[in-house]
Amino acid sequence: MEKIGIVKSEFEKPVNPEKMKEYESTLVIDEEYARGLEGLEVGQSLQVIFNFHLIDDYKLFGPKRIGEPRGVFASRSPKRPNGLGVTAVELLAKDGNQLRVKGLDAIDGTPILDIKSYSKLMDQVDTDTDHHQGHHQAQPRTEIEKLIEDNDLEKLLLKAGELHGHFCPFVSLGVKAAAYAMQELDVSSQGMEEIVAVVETNSCFSDGIQYVTGCTFGNNALIYRDYGKTAVTVATRDGTGIRLYLENYNVVDENYPEASQLFDKVIAQRNGSAEEEERLNKKWQQIAFELLEYPIEELFKIEEVEIDVPDYAPIKEDKFCSECGEKIMAGKEVTIEGEDYCVPCMESNYLQLDGRGLELIGHV
């Protein structure tokens, strides 16, 4: 194979591919191949085929950045028998034999072997097969883990919206923060407490965290600390974690004042018209997807931290209320004179998590 050009990039050595894909690159095509660029239009998607020219060996099986070790043909590892890389990019500008693109994860000086127009008809695969469904049943987070690996924040937000019910700025920020933490820690989740997410708010932000990390109240991997801060810490069982705190908390107010005014009237005051509610939903959707494009460092304070991770959820013998007969989760019973009762029957105080945060509800 002969190269048809080279990549011009500000990255002289490989870094996190998700970071590289946020930057622009230039494809400088050799003059003898320049006529082959005729017909390319700004805004279209291209597939760039290139050579991992600094890799001098290959590895058929080994660890990957996210998830379990696997064969090279089931990964995007650069250590491949023929050293080929393929990445879809967006064409931003065309100037003679130079193409300015966004989304390329190739370093400066990378030899370009080919460029192809991306076609949804030809390049997207219908995965709705019995085999795919069976694999998805065995590993239900396969699709999510792939989206995290590809840093496909838009699709993650689309899926998180199914859980949250609507698109809004803070569910978007939760998706962005969670995906970043999962990538940096190089972890995956099966909902078995192998990782935990410590959220410091019960706002929309938390739904983005739950969807992307797979840490939920139901699988005991979501820990809620009633601090009232838009922040999350994602950690492994040994306590190694990353905390992201929304430092640019005025990002919506400063950049989208109309949305802030609508929010105040429709949500805060509960005094908006149906037309204003519809306008807010449209603005929220716009803002949610636009926030995905912000460099994460402009939004969050990011820290590497060590935390005390709670022990795995204990398995104890359940109790039964002597009054109503209903089963009670172990540890939640009220014991009086050797008899077990539930909280409602005894009208005891209890903690409740609602829109106000964690509240102590008292009967006495």
Structure, briefly:
The chain is α+β, with helices and mostly antiparallel strands. 28% of the residues lie in helices and 26% in strands. The protein has a 6-stranded antiparallel barrel with strand order 1-2-7-6-3-8. A 5-stranded mixed sheet has the order 10-9-11-12-13, covered by helices on one side. Strands 4-5 form a two-stranded antiparallel ribbon.
Describe this protein's structure.
The chain is of the alpha+beta class and 364 residues long. Helix content is 28%, strand content 26%. It is built from eleven helices and 19 strands. Helix 5 crosses helix 7 (205-213) and helix 9 (257-268) crosses helix 10.
Main β-sheet, in a few words? 6 strands, antiparallel, barrel
Q: What is the molecular shape?
A: globular
Please count the helical segments: 11
Strand order of the largest sheet: 1-2-7-6-3-8
| Fraction of residues in helix | 25-40%
Run of helices and strands: EHEEEEEEEHHHHHEHEEEHHHEEEEEHEE
**First CA to last CA: what distance?**
81 Å
Q: If you average the pLDDT, what whole number results?
A: 90
CATH topology of the largest domain: 60s Ribosomal Protein L30, Chain: A
Supply the number of structural domains. 3
User: What is the radius of gyration?
Assistant: 25 Å
- State the CATH class of the largest domain: Alpha Beta
Poorly predicted runs: none
Proportion of β residues?
25-35%
Tally of extended strands? 19
Derived structural class? alpha+beta
